[in-house]
Design brief:
Elements (H helix, E strand, L loop, with lengths): L3 E10 L2 E11 L4 E5 L6 H8 L7 E6 L2 E2 L5 H7 L1 E3 L12 H12 L4 H5 L3 H20 L15 H14 L4 E5 L7 H18 L3 E4 L3 H7 L2 E6 L2 E6 L1 H5 L2 H10 L6
Parallel strand pairs: 3-8, 3-9, 6-7, 7-8
Antiparallel strand pairs: 1-2, 1-4, 4-5, 9-10
Helix pairs in contact: 3-5, 3-6, 6-7
This protein binds adenosine-5'-triphosphate and magnesium ion (MG).
Length: 258
C-alpha cells in the first residue's frame, strides 16, 4: 500500500476542469516530483489533498484511510503538511517565532496558564524555543533565527516556510515551488535541505516545481500533468526524454531546460 493514494481526482471551477480524473501514488521514503506548465492544475491537486478545496469527485487515501474533503487542520493532524507557492510568514516577528507559532498550534494551551505566565507555560515556551532552534539548525537557518522575518532574503524565507511545515511533524510534506525565484546558490542550499529532510527525518515529499534542473536532481520519480490530466510518469531520465512532456512545455513556451 502506498502512503498516499490519489484516485480519479477531479476539481471543477465553473466550467473549467482544473484537475481531471487524476491519479497518482506517493510511496514511503520517496521524493516525488509533480511537474507541468503554468495552470496545469498542480497547486489545485495540493489544495484538494490538503483540504483547502473539496474535490468535485475522486478520493484521497492517506495510510489507507479515506481523508477526502477533510478540513485542512484535520488533514494536518493526520500528518500531511504543506508549504505555499507564496510564502506566508509573520513579517514583523523574528524568524524563529514563526516556527514556535507552528508548535503552539498543535498544543492546546490553557488560557489561564498563558495569562498568568505560570511556570508550566514558561517551561513549555523554553521547550518550543529549543525545538524550533534545533529544527532551524538542521535546515541551516540558525544564523537568521533572531532576524526580522520581513527583511530576510527570498531563499531564507522559503527555507523558513519549510521549517514551519516541518514543525507540524508531518509524515508527508507537500512543497509548492520550493526553489522558484531563487538564485543558483539558494537553489543548491534548498536542494540540500530537501534531501536532508528525507534522509535524516525520513519524511517523504511531493515537490511541485518549475526548475527542471532541481526537479531532476532531487526527485526519485516524476509525474507530469497538463490540463489537469496525467501525461507521463517515470524516472527523471524517462521524463526528460518523454515527447508528451516536452511538447506540453514547448506549447506553454516555458523554458523546460532551466
Ligand atoms: N480558486 C480558483 N478559482 C477558479 N479557478 C481556479 C482557482 N484555482 C485555480 N484555478 C484555475 O485552475 C487552473 C489550474 O490552476 P493551478 O493553480 O492549480 O495551476 P498550477 O499548475 O499550480 O499553475 P502554476 O504553475 O502557474 O502555479 C488554472 O486555470 C487556474 O486559473
Ligand atoms: Mg501552482
Amino acid at each position: 500500500m502506498a502512503l498516499l493514494e490519489v484516485r480519479n481526482l477531479t476539481k471543477h471551477f465553473g466550467g473549467l476542469a482544473a484537475v481531471d480524473d487524476f491519479s497518482f501514488d506517493v510511496r514511503e521514503g520517496e521524493i516525488l516530483g509533480l511537474i507541468g506548465p503554468n495552470g496545469a492544475g498542480k497547486t489545485t491537486v495540493f489544495n484538494c489533498i490538503s483540504g483547502y478545496f473539496p474535490p468535485t469527485s475522486g478520493k484521497v487515501f492517506f495510510k489507507g484511510e479515506d481523508v477526502t474533503g477533510l478540513a485542512p487542520h484535520k488533514i494536518a493532524k493526520k500528518g500531511i503538511s504543506r508549504t505555499f507557492q507564496i510564502t506566508s510568514l509573520f513579517d514583523y516577528f523574528p524568524a524563529v517565532a514563526n516556527v514556535i507559532t507552528a508548535f503552539h498550534l498543535q498544543v492546546k494551551a490553557s488560557v489561564l496558564h498563558t495569562f498568568f505566565n505560570t511556570s508550566r507555560y514558561r517551561q513549555q515556551e523554553a521547550e518550543f524555543m529549543e525545538k524550533a532552534m534545533e529544527l532551524m539548525r538542521m535546515l541551516g537557518l540558525e544564523e537568521i533565527a533572531l532576524e526580522n522575518t520581513g527583511g530576510l532574503p527570498h531563499g531564507h524565507k522559503r527555507g523558513l516556510g519549510v521549517a514551519v511545515a516541518l514543525a507540524c511533524q508531518p509524515k508527508l510534506l507537500l512543497l509548492d515551488e520550493p526553489v522558484t525565484g531563487m538564485n543558483p546558490e539558494e537553489v543548491r542550499v534548498q536542494q540540500d535541505r530537501i534531501r536532508k529532510i528525507r534522509d535524516e527525518l525520513g519524511v517523504p515529499m511531493v515537490l511541485v516545481e518549475h526548475n527542471m534542473r532541481a526537479v531532476m536532481a532531487v526527485c526519485d520519480r516524476i509525474v507530469a500533468v497538463n490540463f489537469g490530466k496525467q501525461i507521463a510518469e517515470g524516472s527523471p531520465e524517462e521524463i526528460r526524454d518523454n515527447r508528451d512532456v516536452i511538447e506540453a512545455y514547448l506549447g506553454s513556451q516555458e523554458d523546460y531546460a532551466t
